[in-house]
Amino acid sequence: MKEVKLTDRKKTIELGEKVGQLLKAGDVLVLDGDLGAGKTTFTKGLAKGLDIPDLIKSPTFTIIREYHDGRLPLYHMDAYRLENGGAEDLGLEEYFDSDGVSVVEWAQFVEDELPADFLAIHFKRTDDENTRLLQFEPHGRHFEQVVTEL
Ligand SMILES: Nc1ncnc2c1ncn2[C@@H]1O[C@H](COP(=O)(O)OP(=O)(O)OP(=O)(O)O)[C@@H](O)[C@H]1O
Ligand SMILES: [Mg+2]
Known about the structure:
Layout: E1 2-6, H1 9-22, E2 28-32, H2 39-49, E3 64-67, E4 74-78, H3 92-96, E5 101-105, E6 118-125, E7 132-139, H4 141-148
Parallel strand pairs: 2-5, 2-6, 4-5
Antiparallel strand pairs: 1-7, 3-4, 6-7
Helix pairs in contact: 1-2
The protein binds adenosine-5'-triphosphate and magnesium ion (MG).
GO molecular function: ATP binding; hydrolase activity; metal ion binding
Pfam families: TsaE
Main location: cytoplasm
């Protein structure tokens, strides 16, 4: 498992951008980690890497936000509010099987819906307020390749 230390917000955005540039249609990324660990910040960079010009806002209350103005569509989801179930009603498979990129925050609540191939990224806060540790856990050859290129 690849682990990366990011010492400020900008570095997290930059890494997200790099990942975004390596993605292809149908890719699924699942992000987990505490509140404020940097999942949405990373997704902002990822959107930049997909050439999405829009401002990325946290989908905590809407659960899903869609962006269609980039190289690929981005489906940004936040499953935080699905802690007590309900993931099976969202039609996630349709997003996961689509020609877009799906990014899911708090993915532990949609575990049962995930496809065979996906990239899990674990976010951890540290003693330093501005430092985050990211662990990349690829499932499938495509994502192994993506992680190698980072
Ligand atoms: N190295 C860093 N990487 C990312 N964010 C950082 C870093 N250092 C400080 N921060 C700050 O931490 C916060 C991360 O918030 P963010 O919304 O990205 O977290 P989140 O994991 O999406 O939280 P939530 O679970 O509430 O959705 C931001 O205020 C950001 O500026
Ligand atoms: Mg968030």
